[in-house]
Amino acid sequence: MPHSLLDRTLDLLATLIAFDTRSSQSNLALIGFVRGHLAEHGVESTLVCDDTGKANLYATIGPADRPGLCLSGHTDVVPATGQPWKVPPFEMTRGVDRVFGRGTADMKGFVAAVLASVPRFVETVRDVPIHLAFSYDEEVGCRGVRGLIDRLATAPVKPLACVIGEPTRMQVAIAHKGKRAYRCCVKGLPGHSALTHLGVNAVDFAAELVTFLRRTANDLRTYGERDPEFDPPYTTVHTGTFNGGIALNVVPDSAQVEFEIRNLPAENPDAIVRSVRAYADNNLVTAMRETFDGSAVE
Ligand SMILES: [Zn+2]
Known about the structure:
single chain, alpha+beta, four-stranded antiparallel β-sheet, 6 helices, binds zinc ion
């Protein structure tokens, strides 16, 4: 058995990297391995699954009747296809002062370090337990962990605090900005472009909404909350996609805008969404309905 914690971590990391846990694949083989490793050290674990053929794993080391510190990581990785890898992505390759492989940093390295520490936790943990939480489908919208969060929400004992081993350049990051994503559909009235006054141009009104979002972003940057722990230190609003129209000589009756808000903890994203909604109702829908009653911004 390798002696140092680093050696044990690297051995475990090599095993974890070799499981192809791209978000499109099942993580059950990896979870089975982790479960076996924990069991070898006398640690029981619970799986929280849904119908995706994947599982979250939850375990407690030490007294289970009181809250402890949770160490959490995701087990899935992003794809490696079509990328210029110089080493096999699903194998661990040792370099001079680092190792290479898909997920080495994000975030099987952390999971391996936690697993390598399990014997020490088992030996030393007395009053405050350590919880382990390993999730799936993080890279595709943090979908997998939701079942586990639901389970913990109703559990008699919840963790006191949680350390997530996401790569942050070895700096402590105390929080992540909040994120809200929206798709906005503007519905107008089609017509021939020679008779624009008879139609309701959805692209025109969607553009006004995009401009309002841009103004909101500027206002938040200038007057909103600030927190130097975040980069940038203010809440951001951004339009990511804008689609509409089918031909130059047709007044477009439909346009879609996707936008997002990434808010500081102190900023209320509901208030921002309410102001967007109010702008759409009071400034856009009212004007559109002067021509066509069925106009809408949804
Ligand atoms: Zn990650």
